[in-house]
Fold:
Amino acid sequence: MSSVVRCHTITKQLKEALEHIENREFTIETIESLLDKRQSLITAIRPPFTEEEQVLGKQMITWSQEIDKELSQLQSSIKRDMNGLSRKRTSVQKYANPYESLQYDGMFYDKKK
Structure:
């Protein structure tokens, strides 16, 4: 099996993993391992290519563009969740101790007797 065919198979698995996200942590681990495998295969791809390999390569290019979009959406959802978590944490802290963040700047002390 040529490296183009193996890379095509891994790219297809990567695309399917991004389309069906059920458990985000498990999916991220799967995506990372597939990306590592695909990267090692991409470096092994050398011309000349057969017609079948050229067709598979064109399909991989379109899939890669779709994969990039899906990965950026996944990244933005993770960032959104992290920001929401940090906002929730600060609001819980403010509710638990509302006087913690008071500032004492600008106080006036009268020194006259």
In short: The radius of gyration is 26 Å. The chain has one domain: 3-96. The mean pLDDT is 88.
